[in-house]
From TrEMBL:
UniProt cross-references to NCBIfam families, sorted A to Z: laccase (TIGR03389)
Protein name: Laccase
Signal peptide bounds: 1-34
Species this chain originates from: Populus trichocarpa (Western balsam poplar)
GO CC annotations, alphabetized: apoplast
Any Pfam family hit: Cu-oxidase
């Protein structure tokens, strides 16, 4: 048997080597038509008026949201970021694979030290083999509340979309959250008190709250459509802490893509996106020419937790001559029905409808079978803290969060990738547990003894080419919740999901190994589980975290250290000369 194992291992390494050569050849062929796009991002404070109030918000180039970047599959982006704001900042290119360019990924103290006020850093990377909607955002504290924008990847020059109808227009729809306060102050106050942060005061579409909020009607976003047109809407949930439903009155969507991967088209009247997720939909101008509200509001799965229950709107407006003759622009828009805030059934129907449109390469022989519990926790009030002002969690505690009972702590003197690359000791360990330290009834009544996780900077080590399966299990510690889990540097196949505790004997029968969706962010069901698979073919240090920013603030994260493989094509590039210092 040992001989067979050795032969199998050699064949696996050879297949990875030849795959690397094929990728290199494909890359070289695509370079003939590829372009390099240069941009300058100036991070600065800008007066922004929303909800009757003007405040200085951190923006890119004075824009809120920031600029939309458009490239073709195979193009290279070079973005010089100059920090003229008062806070440290980094920019993350959400969903970009960053093959061998981990130094450009962006999470603060993970792949780089922050860009200090007055400093700069140039991100350079190629987007290869991805088409659809991605986005970029700050990855420092809560700056992404206002520092974000769309990143659109079109097919290669001259190639059509793989849709039955080519869209006449394309519109990016960025859903966001707005605070009548400085978001940095909001999270700092929550960190000081140990309690939950104040919820947002509004949701936004492309930075505007819409007609249902005070002082907002004049700037409500108008999305044009013509009778008979088929248009492409690129929907991004850029909100900081809230999964969102999205719908348009009297219109249906045909879903064609998600997270820059094409899916088998399906029809729905409502979308649900967790923070970080994108969904591409076709919408047809097949209704009576008029004005129709596009509306978004919260999907709230956590029990007894405060949330922003307001509704943001934009307007889908017909531009046809028939509408002009009837002066449609003066019509009151038609309002769509929206699901109940806790409508998990609608969420399940939607999320389980995704199937990959492309040929899938789902790993079948698994090298690393991992089981990660995810959820909140409560730390007791330290003896040197003021219980009334610094321990405002339930029963005089402080909120925390964890994966496998480890609450992730970012370093402050080095980035994780820098420490790995330079072999700096004492910054992190590689003993993140492959399974929960204790088995328990994850979605049942959990013992209070399990509410307090261990803090640490623990990574999980993966050999290059490892075929990885992760079961992500929600827990009812404090409260069960739908968690959008994002993995940097990778796409992964979502091969199954369900409710209750994952059953390793019965649930593998539900695995879809034929056409599972390829995503970079998975919405783990409330009181449930999801199973993902990927091949560790991108060396570096890659963060995996809940994209509810309050949860990553509390420690709901870990990181994978993926070793270099054989030769240059399987190794991370050298760090750029202008990489910021800590």
């Amino acid at each position: 048997m040992e001989g067979f194992d050795n032969i199998f291992a050699i064949n696996h390494r050879l297949s990875l080597f030849f795959l690397g050569l094929l990728l290199l050849l494909a890359s070289a062929l695509s370079l003939a038509n590829a372009e390099t796009h240069n941009h300058d991002f100036v991070i600065q404070a800008t007066p922004v008026k929303r909800l009757c109030k003007t405040q200085n918000s951190i923006t890119v180039n004075g824009m809120f949201p920031g600029p939309t970047l458009e490239v073709n599959n195979g193009d290279t982006l070079v973005v010089n970021v100059v920090n003229k704001a008062q806070y440290n900042v980094t920019i993350h290119w959400h969903g970009v694979r960053q093959m061998r360019t981990g130094w450009a990924d962006g999470p603060e103290f993970v792949t780089q030290c922050p860009i200090r006020p007055g400093g700069s850093y140039t991100y350079k990377f190629t987007i290869q083999g991805q088409e659809g909607t991605l986005w970029w955002h700050a990855h420092s504290s809560w700056l992404r509340a206002t520092v974000y924008g769309a990143l659109i990847v079109h097919p290669k020059e001259g190639s059509p979309y793989p849709f039955s109808k080519q869209p006449k227009r394309e519109t990016a729809i960025l859903l966001g959250e707005w605070w009548n306060a400085n978001p940095i102050d909001v999270v700092r106050e929550a960190t000081r008190t140990g309690g939950a942060p104040n919820v947002s005061d509004a949701y936004t579409v492309n930075g505007q709250p819409g007609d249902l909020y005070n002082c907002s009607s004049q700037d409500t976003v108008i999305v044009p459509i013509d009778s008979g047109e088929t248009n492409l809407l690129r929907v991004v949930n850029s909100a900081l802490n809230q999964p969102l439903f999205f719908t348009v009155a009297n219109h249906k969507f045909t879903v064609v893509g998600a997270d820059a991967s094409y899916v088998k088209p399906f029809t729905t009247s409502v979308l649900m996106l967790g923070p970080g997720q994108t969904t591409d939909v076709l919408i047809s101008g097949d209704q009576t020419p008029s004005r129709y509200y596009m509306a978004a509001r919260a999907y709230q799965s956590a029990q007894n937790a405060p949330f922003d229950n307001t509704t943001t709107t934009a307007i889908l407006e017909y531009k046809s001559s028939a509408c002009a003759a009837k002066n449609c622009s003066s019509n009151k828009p038609i309002m769509p029905p929206l699901p109940a805030y806790n409508d998990t059934a609608t969420v399940t129907t939607f999320t389980t409808s995704f199937k990959s449109a492309d040929k899938t390469l789902v790993p079948t022989d698994i090298d690393e079978s991992l089981f990660f519990t995810i959820g909140l926790g409560l730390n007791p009030c330290p003896s040197n803290f003021n219980k009334s002002s610094q321990c405002q969690g339930p029963n005089g505690t402080r909120f925390t969060a964890s994966m496998n009972n480890v609450s992730f702590v970012l370093p402050s003197n080095f980035s994780l990738l820098q420490a790995h690359h330079q072999r700096i000791q004492g910054v992190f360990t590689t003993d993140f547990p492959a399974n929960p330290p204790r088995k328990f009834d994850y979605t049942g009544n959990v013992s209070r003894s399990l509410f307090q996780p261990v803090a640490g900077t623990k990574l999980y080590n993966l050999k290059y080419g490892s075929r990885v399966q992760i079961v992500l299990q929600d827990t009812s510690i404090v409260t069960p919740e739908n968690h959008p889990i994002h993995l940097h540097g990778y796409d992964f196949y979502i091969i199954a999901q369900g409710f209750g505790n994952y059953n390793p004997r019965a649930d593998p029968s539900k695995f879809n190994l034929v056409d599972p969706p390829l995503r970079n962010t998975v919405a783990v069901p409330v009181n449930g589980w999801a199973v993902i698979r990927f091949v560790a073919d991108n060396p570096g240090v890659w963060l995996m975290h809940c994209h509810l920013d309050v949860h990553i603030t509390w420690g709901l994260a870990t990181a994978f250290l993926v070793e270099n493989g054989v030769g240059q094509l399987q190794s991370i590039e050298s760090p750029p000369e202008d990489l910021p210092l800590c």
